Amino acid sequence: MSNQRQQKPTLTGQRFKPRKRDEKERFDPSQFQESIVQGLDQSGSDLEAVAKFLDASGAKLDYRRYAETLFDILVAGGMLAPGGTLSEDMTGTDFCVFKAQEDMETMQAYAQVFNKLIRRYKYLEKGFEEEIKKLLLFLKGFTEAERNKLAMLTGILLANGNLSASILSSLFNENVVKEGVSACFAVKLFKSWLSEKDINSVAGSLRKVGMDNRLLELFPANKRSSEHFTKYFDDAGLKELSDFAKNQQSIGARKELQKEIEDQMSRGDSLKDIIAYTREEMKKSNISEQTMVGLIWSSVMSSVEWNKKEELVAEQAIKHLKQYSPLLKAFTSQGYSELTLLLKIQEYCYDNIHFMKAFQKIVVLLYKADVLSEEAILKWYNDAHLPKGKSVFVDQMKTFVEWLKNAEEESESEEEETD
Predict the structure, then answer these.
(1) Phi, psi at residue 28, to the nearest 5°?
(2) Is the pTM value of this prediction over 0.85?
Protein backbone atom coordinates (compact mmCIF):
# COMPACT_ATOMS: atom_id res chain seq x y z
CA MET A 1 0.00 0.00 0.00
CA SER A 2 1.24 3.36 -0.92
CA ASN A 3 1.58 5.83 1.94
CA GLN A 4 1.06 8.65 -0.54
CA ARG A 5 -2.22 10.51 0.09
CA GLN A 6 -4.60 10.29 -2.88
CA GLN A 7 -5.10 13.60 -4.63
CA LYS A 8 -8.63 14.94 -4.96
CA PRO A 9 -9.87 15.34 -8.54
CA THR A 10 -9.89 18.89 -9.87
CA LEU A 11 -12.22 20.47 -12.43
CA THR A 12 -10.46 21.47 -15.55
CA GLY A 13 -11.61 23.58 -18.46
CA GLN A 14 -12.16 27.20 -19.34
CA ARG A 15 -14.27 29.47 -17.08
CA PHE A 16 -16.80 31.68 -18.85
CA LYS A 17 -17.86 35.09 -17.59
CA PRO A 18 -21.63 35.56 -17.66
CA ARG A 19 -22.69 37.58 -20.68
CA LYS A 20 -23.79 41.14 -19.96
CA ARG A 21 -27.30 40.58 -21.31
CA ASP A 22 -27.77 37.68 -18.85
CA GLU A 23 -26.91 39.84 -15.85
CA LYS A 24 -30.00 41.32 -14.13
CA GLU A 25 -29.74 45.09 -14.01
CA ARG A 26 -30.05 46.48 -10.51
CA PHE A 27 -33.10 48.74 -9.98
CA ASP A 28 -31.59 52.15 -9.20
CA PRO A 29 -34.03 55.05 -9.65
CA SER A 30 -31.65 57.55 -7.99
CA GLN A 31 -29.40 57.78 -11.05
CA PHE A 32 -32.48 58.11 -13.27
CA GLN A 33 -33.83 60.91 -11.05
CA GLU A 34 -30.49 62.72 -11.24
CA SER A 35 -30.60 62.73 -15.06
CA ILE A 36 -34.23 63.95 -15.21
CA VAL A 37 -33.78 66.64 -12.52
CA GLN A 38 -30.66 67.94 -14.26
CA GLY A 39 -32.48 68.17 -17.58
CA LEU A 40 -35.52 69.91 -16.03
CA ASP A 41 -33.31 72.44 -14.23
CA GLN A 42 -31.56 73.23 -17.52
CA SER A 43 -34.89 73.61 -19.37
CA GLY A 44 -36.18 75.93 -16.64
CA SER A 45 -39.70 77.31 -16.79
CA ASP A 46 -39.92 76.93 -20.59
CA LEU A 47 -42.39 74.03 -20.84
CA GLU A 48 -41.79 73.71 -24.58
CA ALA A 49 -38.11 73.04 -23.80
CA VAL A 50 -39.19 70.58 -21.06
CA ALA A 51 -41.34 68.66 -23.57
CA LYS A 52 -38.41 68.49 -26.04
CA PHE A 53 -36.01 67.33 -23.33
CA LEU A 54 -38.40 64.54 -22.22
CA ASP A 55 -38.95 63.49 -25.84
CA ALA A 56 -35.20 63.20 -26.50
CA SER A 57 -34.41 61.55 -23.14
CA GLY A 58 -36.78 58.67 -23.85
CA ALA A 59 -34.26 57.31 -26.35
CA LYS A 60 -31.45 57.27 -23.73
CA LEU A 61 -33.20 56.67 -20.41
CA ASP A 62 -35.34 53.66 -19.44
CA TYR A 63 -38.80 55.27 -19.18
CA ARG A 64 -40.51 51.89 -19.16
CA ARG A 65 -38.64 50.76 -16.05
CA TYR A 66 -38.68 54.08 -14.19
CA ALA A 67 -42.13 55.38 -15.19
CA GLU A 68 -43.24 55.92 -11.59
CA THR A 69 -40.08 57.87 -10.76
CA LEU A 70 -40.48 59.97 -13.92
CA PHE A 71 -44.06 60.97 -13.10
CA ASP A 72 -43.24 61.57 -9.40
CA ILE A 73 -40.59 64.08 -10.50
CA LEU A 74 -42.82 65.83 -13.06
CA VAL A 75 -45.66 66.23 -10.54
CA ALA A 76 -43.93 66.59 -7.14
CA GLY A 77 -40.34 67.48 -8.03
CA GLY A 78 -38.78 64.22 -6.84
CA MET A 79 -39.45 60.62 -5.79
CA LEU A 80 -42.33 60.21 -3.36
CA ALA A 81 -42.18 58.02 -0.28
CA PRO A 82 -45.34 56.14 0.85
CA GLY A 83 -47.85 58.69 2.13
CA GLY A 84 -46.83 61.42 -0.29
CA THR A 85 -43.69 62.93 1.32
CA LEU A 86 -40.69 63.75 -0.88
CA SER A 87 -37.65 61.50 -0.56
CA GLU A 88 -35.00 63.62 1.17
CA ASP A 89 -31.89 61.70 0.07
CA MET A 90 -32.09 63.08 -3.48
CA THR A 91 -31.96 66.57 -4.95
CA GLY A 92 -35.35 67.57 -6.33
CA THR A 93 -36.43 70.16 -8.90
CA ASP A 94 -38.58 73.28 -8.64
CA PHE A 95 -39.80 72.79 -12.22
CA CYS A 96 -42.81 70.56 -11.50
CA VAL A 97 -46.61 70.79 -11.12
CA PHE A 98 -46.51 71.28 -7.33
CA LYS A 99 -44.14 74.27 -7.59
CA ALA A 100 -45.97 75.88 -10.53
CA GLN A 101 -48.47 78.75 -10.40
CA GLU A 102 -51.98 77.79 -9.26
CA ASP A 103 -54.04 78.77 -12.30
CA MET A 104 -55.79 77.03 -15.18
CA GLU A 105 -53.51 78.42 -17.90
CA THR A 106 -50.39 77.01 -16.21
CA MET A 107 -52.05 73.64 -15.57
CA GLN A 108 -53.18 73.46 -19.23
CA ALA A 109 -49.56 74.00 -20.27
CA TYR A 110 -48.40 71.17 -17.95
CA ALA A 111 -51.20 68.95 -19.29
CA GLN A 112 -49.72 69.48 -22.76
CA VAL A 113 -46.32 68.27 -21.51
CA PHE A 114 -47.89 65.00 -20.27
CA ASN A 115 -49.98 64.72 -23.43
CA LYS A 116 -46.94 65.01 -25.73
CA LEU A 117 -44.89 62.61 -23.61
CA ILE A 118 -47.55 59.88 -23.57
CA ARG A 119 -48.37 60.35 -27.24
CA ARG A 120 -44.66 59.86 -28.03
CA TYR A 121 -44.20 56.90 -25.66
CA LYS A 122 -47.54 55.07 -25.72
CA TYR A 123 -46.34 52.42 -23.26
CA LEU A 124 -46.38 55.10 -20.51
CA GLU A 125 -50.19 55.40 -20.71
CA LYS A 126 -50.96 52.66 -18.18
CA GLY A 127 -48.14 53.75 -15.85
CA PHE A 128 -49.45 57.32 -15.90
CA GLU A 129 -52.96 56.22 -14.86
CA GLU A 130 -51.45 54.15 -12.04
CA GLU A 131 -49.41 57.19 -10.97
CA ILE A 132 -52.50 59.44 -10.77
CA LYS A 133 -54.38 56.75 -8.80
CA LYS A 134 -51.45 56.63 -6.35
CA LEU A 135 -51.28 60.44 -6.05
CA LEU A 136 -55.00 60.56 -5.22
CA LEU A 137 -54.41 58.10 -2.40
CA PHE A 138 -51.63 60.39 -1.10
CA LEU A 139 -53.81 63.56 -1.04
CA LYS A 140 -53.59 63.98 2.74
CA GLY A 141 -49.80 64.16 2.48
CA PHE A 142 -49.93 67.20 0.16
CA THR A 143 -50.56 70.85 0.97
CA GLU A 144 -53.88 72.47 -0.03
CA ALA A 145 -52.16 74.36 -2.87
CA GLU A 146 -50.58 71.13 -4.17
CA ARG A 147 -53.96 69.36 -4.03
CA ASN A 148 -55.61 72.23 -5.94
CA LYS A 149 -53.02 72.10 -8.71
CA LEU A 150 -53.29 68.31 -8.97
CA ALA A 151 -57.10 68.58 -9.11
CA MET A 152 -56.98 71.16 -11.92
CA LEU A 153 -54.43 69.13 -13.87
CA THR A 154 -56.44 65.88 -13.44
CA GLY A 155 -59.65 67.59 -14.58
CA ILE A 156 -57.93 68.88 -17.75
CA LEU A 157 -56.38 65.46 -18.49
CA LEU A 158 -59.78 63.76 -18.03
CA ALA A 159 -61.40 66.29 -20.36
CA ASN A 160 -58.72 65.71 -23.02
CA GLY A 161 -59.05 61.93 -22.80
CA ASN A 162 -55.50 61.45 -21.46
CA LEU A 163 -56.94 59.65 -18.42
CA SER A 164 -59.84 57.28 -17.86
CA ALA A 165 -62.42 58.31 -15.24
CA SER A 166 -61.66 54.96 -13.55
CA ILE A 167 -58.79 56.76 -11.72
CA LEU A 168 -61.47 58.43 -9.56
CA SER A 169 -61.91 55.13 -7.68
CA SER A 170 -58.95 56.25 -5.51
CA LEU A 171 -61.06 59.16 -4.21
CA PHE A 172 -63.46 56.66 -2.61
CA ASN A 173 -60.73 55.30 -0.34
CA GLU A 174 -61.74 55.79 3.32
CA ASN A 175 -58.37 57.36 4.11
CA VAL A 176 -59.07 60.36 1.81
CA VAL A 177 -62.87 60.43 2.19
CA LYS A 178 -62.74 61.21 5.91
CA GLU A 179 -62.11 64.81 6.89
CA GLY A 180 -63.64 65.94 3.57
CA VAL A 181 -60.43 65.70 1.50
CA SER A 182 -62.07 63.75 -1.38
CA ALA A 183 -65.09 66.04 -1.68
CA CYS A 184 -62.96 69.20 -1.60
CA PHE A 185 -60.60 67.77 -4.25
CA ALA A 186 -63.58 66.67 -6.39
CA VAL A 187 -64.96 70.24 -6.46
CA LYS A 188 -61.71 71.58 -7.99
CA LEU A 189 -61.41 68.59 -10.33
CA PHE A 190 -64.98 68.83 -11.72
CA LYS A 191 -64.75 72.62 -12.08
CA SER A 192 -61.62 72.12 -14.16
CA TRP A 193 -63.21 69.29 -16.19
CA LEU A 194 -66.41 71.29 -16.83
CA SER A 195 -64.42 74.33 -17.94
CA GLU A 196 -63.12 72.16 -20.81
CA LYS A 197 -66.18 69.97 -21.56
CA ASP A 198 -69.95 70.10 -20.97
CA ILE A 199 -71.86 67.98 -18.42
CA ASN A 200 -72.96 65.47 -21.09
CA SER A 201 -69.34 64.67 -21.90
CA VAL A 202 -68.47 64.35 -18.19
CA ALA A 203 -71.54 62.15 -17.59
CA GLY A 204 -70.60 59.92 -20.56
CA SER A 205 -67.08 59.39 -19.21
CA LEU A 206 -68.41 58.55 -15.74
CA ARG A 207 -71.02 56.10 -17.11
CA LYS A 208 -68.42 54.37 -19.27
CA VAL A 209 -66.52 53.21 -16.17
CA GLY A 210 -69.50 52.79 -13.81
CA MET A 211 -68.67 55.88 -11.72
CA ASP A 212 -71.97 57.66 -12.44
CA ASN A 213 -73.72 56.04 -9.47
CA ARG A 214 -70.83 56.31 -6.99
CA LEU A 215 -70.44 60.07 -6.50
CA LEU A 216 -72.10 59.98 -3.06
CA GLU A 217 -69.12 57.90 -1.88
CA LEU A 218 -67.03 61.09 -1.92
CA PHE A 219 -68.55 61.74 1.52
CA PRO A 220 -68.21 59.80 4.80
CA ALA A 221 -71.09 57.39 5.57
CA ASN A 222 -72.78 59.83 7.99
CA LYS A 223 -72.99 62.52 5.26
CA ARG A 224 -73.75 60.22 2.31
CA SER A 225 -77.19 61.59 1.39
CA SER A 226 -78.63 63.15 -1.74
CA GLU A 227 -79.52 66.32 0.20
CA HIS A 228 -75.97 66.81 1.51
CA PHE A 229 -74.43 66.11 -1.91
CA THR A 230 -76.78 68.60 -3.63
CA LYS A 231 -76.14 71.38 -1.10
CA TYR A 232 -72.36 70.85 -1.08
CA PHE A 233 -71.94 70.98 -4.86
CA ASP A 234 -74.62 73.65 -5.40
CA ASP A 235 -72.82 75.90 -2.90
CA ALA A 236 -69.56 75.25 -4.76
CA GLY A 237 -71.14 76.41 -8.03
CA LEU A 238 -71.51 72.91 -9.52
CA LYS A 239 -75.29 72.66 -9.86
CA GLU A 240 -74.91 70.78 -13.17
CA LEU A 241 -73.06 68.01 -11.36
CA SER A 242 -75.50 67.83 -8.42
CA ASP A 243 -78.45 67.68 -10.88
CA PHE A 244 -76.73 64.86 -12.75
CA ALA A 245 -76.11 62.92 -9.50
CA LYS A 246 -79.72 63.46 -8.43
CA ASN A 247 -80.96 62.17 -11.79
CA GLN A 248 -78.70 59.09 -11.53
CA GLN A 249 -80.08 58.33 -8.09
CA SER A 250 -83.60 58.69 -9.43
CA ILE A 251 -82.82 56.29 -12.30
CA GLY A 252 -81.34 53.81 -9.80
CA ALA A 253 -84.44 54.06 -7.59
CA ARG A 254 -86.71 53.47 -10.59
CA LYS A 255 -84.74 50.39 -11.63
CA GLU A 256 -85.10 48.98 -8.12
CA LEU A 257 -88.83 49.76 -8.13
CA GLN A 258 -89.28 48.06 -11.51
CA LYS A 259 -87.44 44.98 -10.23
CA GLU A 260 -89.63 44.86 -7.10
CA ILE A 261 -92.84 45.05 -9.18
CA GLU A 262 -91.52 42.20 -11.37
CA ASP A 263 -90.76 40.15 -8.24
CA GLN A 264 -94.29 40.79 -6.92
CA MET A 265 -95.73 39.51 -10.19
CA SER A 266 -93.48 36.44 -10.12
CA ARG A 267 -94.62 35.68 -6.54
CA GLY A 268 -98.25 35.97 -7.64
CA ASP A 269 -99.08 38.91 -5.32
CA SER A 270 -102.59 40.29 -5.76
CA LEU A 271 -103.09 43.24 -8.13
CA LYS A 272 -104.59 45.18 -5.23
CA ASP A 273 -101.34 44.82 -3.23
CA ILE A 274 -99.15 45.66 -6.24
CA ILE A 275 -101.21 48.80 -6.99
CA ALA A 276 -101.08 49.92 -3.33
CA TYR A 277 -97.31 49.38 -3.13
CA THR A 278 -96.68 51.17 -6.45
CA ARG A 279 -98.82 54.18 -5.46
CA GLU A 280 -96.95 54.47 -2.17
CA GLU A 281 -93.54 54.34 -3.89
CA MET A 282 -94.71 56.79 -6.56
CA LYS A 283 -95.65 59.31 -3.85
CA LYS A 284 -92.51 58.69 -1.78
CA SER A 285 -90.14 59.10 -4.76
CA ASN A 286 -92.15 61.92 -6.34
CA ILE A 287 -92.55 60.02 -9.64
CA SER A 288 -95.08 61.34 -12.17
CA GLU A 289 -97.92 59.12 -13.45
CA GLN A 290 -96.45 59.26 -16.99
CA THR A 291 -93.09 57.96 -15.76
CA MET A 292 -94.78 55.33 -13.58
CA VAL A 293 -96.98 53.87 -16.34
CA GLY A 294 -93.89 53.46 -18.55
CA LEU A 295 -92.11 51.71 -15.69
CA ILE A 296 -95.11 49.42 -15.06
CA TRP A 297 -95.30 48.53 -18.77
CA SER A 298 -91.61 47.49 -18.67
CA SER A 299 -92.23 45.44 -15.50
CA VAL A 300 -95.25 43.68 -17.02
CA MET A 301 -93.39 42.81 -20.23
CA SER A 302 -90.22 41.69 -18.40
CA SER A 303 -92.03 39.39 -15.99
CA VAL A 304 -92.66 36.63 -18.54
CA GLU A 305 -90.62 34.43 -20.92
CA TRP A 306 -91.96 35.21 -24.40
CA ASN A 307 -92.48 32.67 -27.15
CA LYS A 308 -90.00 33.07 -30.02
CA LYS A 309 -92.65 32.25 -32.67
CA GLU A 310 -94.36 35.33 -34.07
CA GLU A 311 -97.68 33.56 -34.63
CA LEU A 312 -97.86 32.44 -30.97
CA VAL A 313 -96.47 35.50 -29.18
CA ALA A 314 -99.51 37.73 -29.96
CA GLU A 315 -101.86 35.26 -28.31
CA GLN A 316 -99.53 34.93 -25.31
CA ALA A 317 -99.26 38.74 -25.00
CA ILE A 318 -103.04 39.25 -25.08
CA LYS A 319 -103.58 36.66 -22.36
CA HIS A 320 -100.80 38.18 -20.18
CA LEU A 321 -101.87 41.81 -20.66
CA LYS A 322 -105.52 40.96 -19.99
CA GLN A 323 -104.45 39.78 -16.54
CA TYR A 324 -102.49 42.98 -15.80
CA SER A 325 -104.72 45.55 -17.56
CA PRO A 326 -106.22 46.68 -14.17
CA LEU A 327 -102.67 47.57 -13.03
CA LEU A 328 -102.09 49.67 -16.16
CA LYS A 329 -105.54 51.25 -15.80
CA ALA A 330 -104.74 52.38 -12.23
CA PHE A 331 -101.93 54.58 -13.62
CA THR A 332 -103.54 56.02 -16.76
CA SER A 333 -105.96 58.51 -15.22
CA GLN A 334 -104.58 61.31 -17.45
CA GLY A 335 -104.49 61.68 -21.23
CA TYR A 336 -100.69 62.19 -21.18
CA SER A 337 -100.28 58.91 -19.30
CA GLU A 338 -102.33 57.06 -21.95
CA LEU A 339 -100.23 58.59 -24.72
CA THR A 340 -97.02 57.68 -22.85
CA LEU A 341 -98.22 54.07 -22.63
CA LEU A 342 -99.04 54.00 -26.36
CA LEU A 343 -95.54 55.24 -27.20
CA LYS A 344 -94.01 52.63 -24.89
CA ILE A 345 -96.03 49.91 -26.64
CA GLN A 346 -94.90 51.18 -30.05
CA GLU A 347 -91.26 51.27 -28.94
CA TYR A 348 -91.46 47.78 -27.42
CA CYS A 349 -93.06 46.22 -30.51
CA TYR A 350 -90.46 47.89 -32.74
CA ASP A 351 -87.49 46.80 -30.59
CA ASN A 352 -88.79 43.21 -30.23
CA ILE A 353 -89.34 42.01 -33.78
CA HIS A 354 -91.65 39.10 -32.78
CA PHE A 355 -94.15 41.73 -31.56
CA MET A 356 -94.27 43.78 -34.78
CA LYS A 357 -97.62 42.27 -35.87
CA ALA A 358 -99.06 42.26 -32.33
CA PHE A 359 -99.22 46.06 -31.91
CA GLN A 360 -102.82 46.53 -33.09
CA LYS A 361 -104.12 43.59 -31.04
CA ILE A 362 -102.47 44.97 -27.86
CA VAL A 363 -103.93 48.46 -28.41
CA VAL A 364 -107.44 47.10 -29.08
CA LEU A 365 -107.28 44.92 -25.95
CA LEU A 366 -106.27 47.91 -23.79
CA TYR A 367 -109.02 50.02 -25.40
CA LYS A 368 -111.61 47.38 -24.52
CA ALA A 369 -110.16 47.13 -20.99
CA ASP A 370 -110.69 50.90 -20.61
CA VAL A 371 -106.95 51.54 -20.24
CA LEU A 372 -106.68 53.56 -23.47
CA SER A 373 -109.31 56.07 -24.63
CA GLU A 374 -110.25 56.75 -28.25
CA GLU A 375 -108.95 60.33 -27.86
CA ALA A 376 -105.47 59.05 -26.95
CA ILE A 377 -105.49 56.50 -29.81
CA LEU A 378 -106.58 59.13 -32.37
CA LYS A 379 -103.98 61.61 -31.08
CA TRP A 380 -101.28 58.93 -31.42
CA TYR A 381 -102.51 57.99 -34.92
CA ASN A 382 -102.71 61.56 -36.25
CA ASP A 383 -99.53 63.19 -35.00
CA ALA A 384 -98.07 61.84 -31.75
CA HIS A 385 -96.55 58.53 -32.91
CA LEU A 386 -92.80 57.84 -32.90
CA PRO A 387 -90.81 57.51 -36.16
CA LYS A 388 -89.87 53.93 -35.16
CA GLY A 389 -91.90 51.58 -37.40
CA LYS A 390 -94.37 54.41 -38.07
CA SER A 391 -95.64 53.12 -41.44
CA VAL A 392 -96.09 49.53 -40.17
CA PHE A 393 -97.98 50.47 -36.98
CA VAL A 394 -100.09 53.27 -38.50
CA ASP A 395 -101.13 50.89 -41.29
CA GLN A 396 -102.06 48.22 -38.71
CA MET A 397 -104.27 50.74 -36.88
CA LYS A 398 -105.99 52.16 -39.98
CA THR A 399 -109.12 49.95 -39.90
CA PHE A 400 -109.59 50.29 -36.14
CA VAL A 401 -109.15 54.09 -36.28
CA GLU A 402 -111.75 54.32 -39.06
CA TRP A 403 -114.11 52.27 -36.90
CA LEU A 404 -113.47 54.64 -33.97
CA LYS A 405 -114.21 57.69 -36.13
CA ASN A 406 -117.43 56.14 -37.48
CA ALA A 407 -118.53 55.15 -33.98
CA GLU A 408 -117.88 58.71 -32.83
CA GLU A 409 -119.91 60.16 -35.73
CA GLU A 410 -122.80 57.75 -35.08
CA SER A 411 -122.74 58.69 -31.41
CA GLU A 412 -122.90 62.38 -32.31
CA SER A 413 -125.82 61.75 -34.74
CA GLU A 414 -127.75 59.83 -32.08
CA GLU A 415 -127.24 62.70 -29.62
CA GLU A 416 -128.54 65.22 -32.18
CA GLU A 417 -131.64 63.05 -32.88
CA THR A 418 -132.33 62.80 -29.16
CA ASP A 419 -132.14 66.59 -28.84
Answers:
(1) -135, 85
(2) no
